[in-house]
């Protein structure tokens, strides 16, 4: 009964934590104080510019530029337009979209400047793009960013004249190839005065506005972010992930020039990315409020600061519950590692476990994680029709996330069966079966073969007898600690996500040696609630970013969360639950595969297979 109560406490607590972390703030009304950001005021601009498609060079985009210039002048800005010719590659894409020859096409940036009290100081640049892709009204991408900047700019002017210049850049032809940003930073004199950039983007119409990219040397900037932003959504591992992805935004151009800054974007409601359905009605005002509160907190403070944060070594950082940000020097990452090592040694002193049993627990965990990743890859292949449309996959992300979660649940249900049998070759069968199914369904050969080999290697090392629960938990924690050590040695800014789980699991391991036993159960449940909730929130963000293509990375959260969850699980396999979960995952994946192409997919992706991404 105590175990059941602990499991309930852990799961309910984790769910509440994750919901709080991923829920944006309530939108402020139109009559909010003038120095505050109001999503409902910003929505008026979304309504004005996000009704119809306005791709670069179109008549509709001329109207949007005129509206933006007028709004900036009304707010007291000096406004100019910067015309620039489109490069051949962008002209070719525009011609393909429109079906008309666009040779000699010219695009236009809209630039506004609010003079500060000292023109010698580096300026703040607020940046978003005003053009859309062909066939999309772009109320999300990027009318949300444009409207957020207008409302942020208005709130700054309500606070008085800033210390330094505040420059607004609404770029053109971002969707064609970042051409407006390239033209501004290469040829506009104001570019030489920019000290920090805040770029606002959207790959969806809802969810939290995530600060997912910074300029280099972000240490002082991230401590500034931590001090100023009341509702943060940021993790330094996101910066590493994004750097590995082929995507780009206007911020890419600024970053390549060594500028400091922040890139903030929404990822939720991703079906509306580049969609013909991306009208103002699709926008969640709460997400607009979230983006605006972060943008105003940063821009407002920087505009009135006598000096900008200096360049400093990159920081490790993470938000906590979407309410606080921790940011620290990577060297500090050794502290939680050493502290958790001490806690593990204390726990092992009070409850001795053999090295062999701990090694067995680590082997079971490694096999579980790798087979889980392999299963997710196969389930994703089940869900994917051929040829797959990228935007159709984005529309299916909620279903795909459920498929991944159910698949991981099925893996956990059979984890106690992970042990070596005679003949020994039988342990290789699950990975071989998944490999064959994946290849049959069209999974990537290099990806699934390498993951299958790793899973088979882990299976080969499984103990002959499945270790007891305490040994499996201890081995899982030690394996995670070793991974944390490797991360600290190679990519220390990725440490916060692992460090929290390692510390919580280590503290719970010590508590389980205490008497009465109820103390251990309570601490274990609390640690699991906090740790799993934190992991679930960031796993959700990760899945929105890469889950349509790479759901197998979700299994990394199995590695991180398993030491927290394992003490609450039974030591025997749930042979009734696992088949039900697998059946549910397959049925849901097949529903995605056999369903019609979503009405929300980008028009141009149906016409010519263009898979433009940001």
List keywords for this structure.
7-stranded mixed β-sheet; 614 residues; 23 helices; Aminopeptidase; alpha/beta; disordered C terminus; 9 strands
Protein architecture, described:
This protein has 614 residues and is an alpha/beta fold. It folds into 2 domains: 76-328, 3-Layer(aba) Sandwich (Aminopeptidase), CATH 3.40.630.10; 333-597, no CATH class. It has 23 helices and 9 strands. The strands form 2 sheets. The protein has a 7-stranded mixed β-sheet with strand order 1-2-4-3-5-7-6, with helices on both faces. A two-stranded antiparallel sheet has the order 8-9. A hairpin with a 3-residue loop joins strand 8 and strand 9 (324-328). It is globular, with a radius of gyration of 26 Å.
Helical fraction equals 40-55%
- What spatial form do the alpha-carbon principal axes imply? globular
**Terminus-to-terminus distance:** 50 Å
Number of helices: 23
Major beta sheet summary: 7 strands, mixed
Overall structural class, as computed from helix and strand content, comes to: alpha/beta
Would you spell out the secondary-structure blueprint of this structure?
Layout (H helix, E strand, L loop, with lengths): L1 H21 L16 H11 L9 H16 L3 E8 L2 H11 L7 E9 L8 E7 L13 H16 L7 E6 L2 H4 L1 H9 L6 E9 L3 E9 L4 H10 L7 H9 L5 H7 L3 E9 L16 H20 L11 E5 L3 E5 L5 H17 L4 H29 L6 H6 L1 H18 L14 H12 L4 H16 L8 H22 L4 H17 L5 H30 L8 H11 L11 H18 L8 H6 L6
Parallel strand pairs: 3-4, 3-5, 5-7
Antiparallel strand pairs: 1-2, 2-4, 6-7, 8-9
Summarize the structure.
The strands form two sheets. The protein has a seven-stranded mixed beta sheet, sandwiched between helices. Strands 8-9 form a two-stranded antiparallel ribbon.
């Amino acid at each position: 009964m105590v175990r059941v109560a602990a499991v309930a406490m852990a799961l309910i607590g984790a769910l509440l934590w994750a919901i709080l972390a991923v829920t944006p703030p309530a939108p402020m009304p139109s009559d909010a104080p003038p120095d505050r950001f109001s999503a409902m005021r910003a929505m008026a601009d979304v309504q004005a510019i996000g009704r119809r498609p306005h791709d670069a060079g179109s008549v509709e985009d001329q109207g949007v530029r005129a509206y933006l210039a007028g709004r900036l002048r009304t707010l007291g800005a000096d406004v100019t337009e910067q015309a620039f010719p489109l490069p051949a590659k962008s002209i070719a894409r525009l011609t393909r979209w429109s079906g008309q020859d666009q040779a000699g096409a010219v695009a236009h940036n809209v630039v506004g400047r609010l003079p500060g009290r000292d023109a010698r100081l580096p300026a703040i640049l607020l940046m978003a793009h005003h053009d859309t892709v062909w066939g999309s009204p772009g109320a999300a991408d990027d009318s949300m960013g444009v409207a957020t900047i207008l409302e942020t700019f208005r709130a700054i002017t309500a606070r008085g004249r800033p210390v330094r210049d505040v420059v607004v850049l609404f770029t053109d032809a971002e969707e064609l190839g970042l051409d407006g940003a390239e033209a501004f930073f290469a040829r506009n004199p104001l570019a030489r005065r920019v000290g920090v950039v805040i770029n606002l983007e959207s790959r969806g119409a809802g969810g939290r506005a995530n600060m997912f990219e910074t300029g280099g040397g972000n240490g002082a900037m991230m401590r500034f972010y931590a001090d100023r932003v009341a509702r943060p959504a940021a993790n330094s591992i996101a910066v590493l992930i994004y750097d590995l992805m082929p995507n780009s935004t206007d911020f890419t151009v600024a970053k390549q020039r060594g500028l400091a800054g922040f890139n903030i974007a929404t990822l939720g409601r991703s079906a509306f990315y580049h969609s013909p359905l991306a009208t103002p009605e699709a926008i969640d005002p709460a997400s607009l409020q979230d983006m605006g509160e972060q943008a105003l907190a940063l821009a407002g403070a920087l505009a009135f600061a006598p000096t900008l944060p200096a360049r400093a070594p990159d920081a490790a950082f993470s938000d906590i519950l979407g309410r606080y940000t921790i940011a620290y020097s990577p060297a500090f990452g050794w502290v939680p590692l050493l502290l958790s090592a001490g806690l593990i040694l204390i726990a092992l002193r009070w409850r001795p476990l053999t090295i062999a049993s701990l090694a067995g627990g680590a082997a079971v965990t490694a096999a579980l994680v790798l087979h889980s990743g392999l299963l997710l890859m196969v389930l994703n292949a089940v869900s994917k029709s051929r040829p797959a449309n990228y935007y159709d996959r984005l529309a299916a992300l909620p279903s795909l996330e459920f498929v991944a979660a159910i698949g991981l649940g099925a893996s956990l249900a059979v984890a106690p069966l992970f042990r070596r049998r005679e003949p020994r070759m039988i342990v290789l069968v699950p990975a071989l079966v998944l490999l064959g199914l994946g290849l049959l369904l069209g999974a990537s050969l290099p990806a699934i073969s390498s993951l299958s080999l790793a899973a088979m290697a882990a299976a080969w090392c499984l103990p002959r007898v499945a270790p007891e629960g305490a040994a499996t938990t201890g081995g899982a924690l030690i394996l995670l600690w070793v991974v944390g050590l490797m991360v600290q040695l190679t990519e220390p800014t990725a440490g916060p996500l692992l460090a929290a789980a390692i510390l919580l699991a280590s503290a719970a391991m010590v508590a389980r040696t205490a008497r009465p036993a109820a103390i251990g159960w309570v601490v274990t449940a609390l640690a699991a609630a906090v740790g799993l909730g934190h992991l679930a929130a960031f796993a959700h963000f990760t899945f929105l970013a890469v889950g349509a293509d790479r759901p197998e990375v979700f299994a990394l959260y199995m590695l991180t969360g398993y030491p927290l969850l394992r003490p609450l699980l039974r030591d025997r396999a749930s042979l009734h639950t696992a088949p039900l979960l697998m059946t549910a995952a397959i049925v849901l994946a097949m529903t995605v595969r056999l369903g019609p192409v979503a009405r929300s997919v980008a028009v141009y992706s149906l016409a010519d297979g263009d898979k433009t991404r940001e």
